[in-house]
Design brief:
Layout (H helix, E strand, L loop, with lengths): L1 E3 L5 H11 L8 H16 L4 E7 L5 E14 L2 E13 L8 H15 L4 E4 L4 H6 L3 E2 L2 E7 L13 E4 L4 H12 L10 H8 L4 E7 L2 E12 L8 E10 L2 H12 L5 E8 L18 E2 L3 E2 L2 E5 L2 E4 L2 H8 L11 E8 L8 E8 L2 E7 L8 E4 H8 L5 H6 L4 E2 L4 H8 L12
Parallel strand pairs: 4-5, 11-12, 17-20
Antiparallel strand pairs: 1-2, 2-3, 3-4, 5-16, 6-16, 7-12, 7-15, 8-9, 9-10, 10-11, 13-14, 17-18, 18-19, 20-21
Helix pairs in contact: 1-2
Length: 418
């Protein structure tokens, strides 16, 4: 049985999480007591979080997950999305398909609440690929000398912010989210981190309005002396280029105290704004390519309802076909038989609609897995690239046309961790 957790379940929940995530350092009784109180607060507070648990018949909790209820930007439209996090299974109940059933329950909740797309950060990308999730955007981690940043902006415009500026920070963040595909509006937990001053915030004002902000901490370099620091950037967002340049100039001026600035970003264009993007590895990639960043795969997406996604997004920011037409798609989904099968995607009266169709794979214009479809429709990869590598079969249409109609112009970016 899977149900919402209650206050009486939280001690068991804390024990399971302690075993599933030893890196959280909550193995001691006092630590678990504090963590169970946190879980109770998060569950009972009116917020965007819900905890669900898998129980054996004797009411023993053996697995759990946390549901995140988001508002996110899908190709220019703010759409409700679900995220799943803290998936944990009791150490003595592994290989009992508990994680499988928890994920299935999560998908069913999304379907029942008319949420068409979900996302997660995987503990194992291969595991979730089998569950129908597609790769999201790659993330680049730069370790830059402060002097790598352009110095032409006015660093004196950058002011230290405080928790008292929470509403201004949130307003700016949400304004940025509304204009950037993939971004998620500020969450309840992120607001709490601002209140608790989990990091420093600095910002730039223009006509008494916050137009740029950066969240960061200063930390000593591991295995070095106490005067050797790095500046870790958690967030950096702006709605005016002048704000980006001002903060860049401020970072440039930190050379005397900061050895490296660590920035993590999905933006492939970020490197082109830097005077010298080399990191501290001193490695060379043949023939002569200087290492500038580490690259990782993390965030993954999954379509839960094609009908819902098409209705909610309607690919509104994309080029429209010149005339009415339809495309027959066969979607392969080994995890969910409800989504597996044929679809007819019709463009009529300047609007896209989709309906189920009894076609077989051999009669489809496009045959694609649910994971690759999710990545494509979220703008992480083009159909042309999928065809190039033999992942997808297409006939009767140009891949370039389909990319114009369905793939967002920009890859998604997302600052939200869950």
């Amino acid at each position: 049985m899977i149900r919402l957790l209650t206050q009486t379940d939280m001690v068991q929940a804390a024990e399971i999480v302690a075993m599933a995530y030893p890196g959280m350092n909550i193995s001691q009784v006092t630590q678990q007591a504090e963590f169970s109180e946190r879980l109770t607060t998060e569950q009972e507070t009116d917020n965007d979080l819900r905890y669900y648990g898998f129980f054996h018949e004797e009411n023993k909790l053996v697995g759990l997950y946390r549901l995140h209820d988001f508002q996110g930007n899908i190709n220019g439209r703010m759409v409700r999305q679900f995220g799943i996090g803290m998936v944990a299974v009791h150490l003595f109940h592994k290989k009992e398909r508990i994680a499988f059933q928890l994920l299935q329950h999560f998908h069913e909740l999304a379907q029942n609440e008319h949420v068409s797309i979900v996302s997660l950060y995987p503990f194992n990308t291969g595991f979730y690929r089998k569950m129908g999730y597609g790769y999201g955007p790659t993330r680049y981690q730069y370790k830059l000398k402060p002097t790598s940043f352009p110095s032409g902006g006015d660093k004196h415009r950058v002011k230290l912010l405080s928790p008292a500026n929470e509403e201004e920070i949130v307003h700016l963040y949400n304004e940025y989210a509304e204009t950037h595909h993939g971004m998620i509006k500020r969450t309840w937990n992120e607001r709490n981190l601002i209140k608790k001053k989990a990091s420093y915030y600095a910002g730039v004002y223009e006509e008494d309005k916050l137009v740029g902000a950066i969240a960061y901490i200063l930390q000593p370099v591991k295995d070095s002396h106490f005067l050797h620091h790095e500046l870790i950037v958690f967030e950096w967002f702006w709605i005016k280029p002048s704000a980006f340049l001002a903060i860049s100039a401020w970072l440039n001026s930190q050379e005397d105290q900061v050895d490296r600035v660590v920035i993590r970003t999905h933006d492939e264009a970020f490197m082109y704004q830097l005077d010298n993007p080399k990191n501290d590895s001193n490695r060379m990639i043949p023939s002569v390519y200087h290492e500038v960043a580490q690259v990782g795969s993390g965030l993954m997406y999954r379509l839960i309802s094609l009908e819902g996604f098409v209705k909610q997004s309607n690919f509104s920011s994309n080029i429209r076909p010149h005339k009415d037409r339809y495309i027959l798609i066969f979607v392969e989904d080994t995890f969910s038989q409800e989504l597996h099968g044929g679809y007819k995607l019709t463009f009529k009266d300047n609007n896209w609609e989709v309906e189920r169709n009894l076609l077989t794979k051999n009669f489809a214009d496009l045959s694609i897995s649910i994971g690759d479809l999710s990545s494509w429709w979220m703008g992480c990869v083009s159909l042309e690239q999928l065809i190039k590598y033999g992942k997808v079969e297409l006939s009767n249409f140009s891949a370039r046309d389909l990319d114009h109609w369905f793939k967002p112009y920009t890859k998604p970016i997302c600052f939200t961790s869950f």
